[in-house]
């Protein structure tokens, strides 16, 4: 991940741009400009600036996986056996049903998310890991909070070039 370079303070307009883009990445620059009170060229320049400095990494679609048949999401904590860390990481990367993977501190080395069409798909996906790791699985019932931005302007002195 690219670390932002220091120089110019992020202001309330930048914060509003980030909030609106995080809610609707397909918003047109003219609509975004009218919502934040600037001209479309000014907003376009600010967005380009935020992209160039790694603050906006990408703008993507929010896909409803259930509409595509993936009705269950599982959070799987994975604790590789000694000497198996890199092999387990490669196995996670090779299985396309894993949609997220975080390497973490603590007892587990990985916290992952994967999608399945039904509960019967879970064991065949996880069984190959059991020779190399311990797994602990929880099924996601709902996600009352997802993708919220942290406060952007409370940190004094956070600036970007």
From TrEMBL:
<dbReference type="GO" id="GO:0043565">
    <property type="term" value="F:sequence-specific DNA binding"/>
</dbReference>
<dbReference type="InterPro" id="IPR019887">
    <property type="entry name" value="Tscrpt_reg_AsnC/Lrp_C"/>
</dbReference>
<keyword id="KW-0238">DNA-binding</keyword>
<protein>
    <submittedName>
        <fullName>AsnC family transcriptional regulator</fullName>
    </submittedName>
</protein>
<dbReference type="InterPro" id="IPR036388">
    <property type="entry name" value="WH-like_DNA-bd_sf"/>
</dbReference>
<dbReference type="InterPro" id="IPR011008">
    <property type="entry name" value="Dimeric_a/b-barrel"/>
</dbReference>
<keyword id="KW-0804">Transcription</keyword>
<feature type="domain" description="HTH asnC-type">
    <location>
        <begin position="10"/>
        <end position="71"/>
    </location>
</feature>
<dbReference type="InterPro" id="IPR000485">
    <property type="entry name" value="AsnC-type_HTH_dom"/>
</dbReference>
<dbReference type="InterPro" id="IPR036390">
    <property type="entry name" value="WH_DNA-bd_sf"/>
</dbReference>
<dbReference type="InterPro" id="IPR019885">
    <property type="entry name" value="Tscrpt_reg_HTH_AsnC-type_CS"/>
</dbReference>
<keyword id="KW-0805">Transcription regulation</keyword>
<dbReference type="InterPro" id="IPR019888">
    <property type="entry name" value="Tscrpt_reg_AsnC-like"/>
</dbReference>
<dbReference type="GO" id="GO:0005829">
    <property type="term" value="C:cytosol"/>
</dbReference>
<dbReference type="Pfam" id="PF13404">
    <property type="entry name" value="HTH_AsnC-type"/>
</dbReference>
<dbReference type="Pfam" id="PF01037">
    <property type="entry name" value="AsnC_trans_reg"/>
</dbReference>
<dbReference type="GO" id="GO:0043200">
    <property type="term" value="P:response to amino acid"/>
</dbReference>
